[in-house]
Amino acid sequence: MDIGSHMVQLGTYFAERQLIRNIQSQPEIKFHIMGTVKTLQYSSPEKTRGLQVWGTYDILLNFTEIQRRFDIARDNNDGYDYGCFILTEEVWNPSIHVWWGQTRMSSWPISGSMVLPNGEKLMLLQDWYIANKGTWNQSWWDNVKAANDPGETIVYEWSSWYGYTLLKGWHEFMHSIGKKSALFGICGFNSDNFDYDMRHDFFPGQMLDYMIQNYDLVTTGVHPNTMSDISRDMSWLKQLRDWGYTGKIVHIIPACWYDGWGCPWNRDVAKEDMKQALTYADIILVLPFADTSEWMVDESNISEHIQYIPITIEWMKEFVELCPSLQIQISMSGAIPSLWTLNPMGE
After folding, report:
1. How far is residue 126's CA from residue 116's CA, in Å, rounded to a whole number?
2. What pTM value is reported for the model?
3. 234-254 confidence digits (pLDDT tens)
4. Helix, strand, coil percentages in the chain from 3-state DSSP, rounded to 5
5. Is residue 14 exposed (0-12), middle (13-18) or buried (19+ Cβ within 10 Å)?
6. Where are the domains of the chain?
7. Which of 18, 44, 198, 250 has the greatest CB tally within 10 Å of its CB?
8. What mean pLDDT comes out for the span 67-88?
């Protein structure tokens, strides 16, 4: 089993609830993603920590909310190491949200601008149009808006520029406050054409190249529940590396999500997906339960649900045994190892 010349660690989405944290407090877990500011108080500087503050899609065109996200990141910068892009996932660019059906162009605010912390000006559609195309054409906008066409040439050009300006602004801001930039949510795609989707829909224009060349960490994971779909998961991981991405890859191993994605969870598929992902990933991220809807289970019912983290730790031990050349760093505390890592270079 060739996993490449890098260390692989285990991580998890860290929770506010004590019940869930009890499950997550295994010493083998070395990376935490935290979805709320409140959760920062429960994680330790001994862990590598990523901050993500979940939000709705309309954050992308809301300058007040964007500024608040920069402020949150600055005000809490002693509690995390990696700051997720605008502290949420799947913001990316305005057009993609229309294609996904999350919003309609008729709801877009189109007038206004703000200066980002890196000094660059972020402009909504009308301001950008006037600056780049001349006098505002209201009839053009009325027609495009009525058609709800986010791929219209000028709209798409603006959306690509807007996403790039914000993506660049966040990365430079993170580094200016001594943190690293992270992009969460490159996960769960239906399409098999990862290259096209990434370049055309998710990160158009300069966005993809900028992310590949600059961002410090990204998450991945298709969440397959059949053996035949694992290859698609791996092809996307491989594509990131083939593009030249040298940052940290956090691979979320398969789970059954509350919206039905990846359900039902298949233990054998999840194990094989994790095994193959070790070739490309730096951090394997595991959820507290195999079914994410069980995050809110009552304490009295906890024993009835599949706790995912202990299973994953056992898998990691098995993978190490399969590859004797791997070295494991272990510091015993009673009968529990404080760290299991795959380290083929012995570093």
Report:
1. 18
2. 0.90
3. 988 999 999 999 999 999 999
4. 45, 15, 40
5. buried
6. 9-104+151-337
7. 250
8. 96
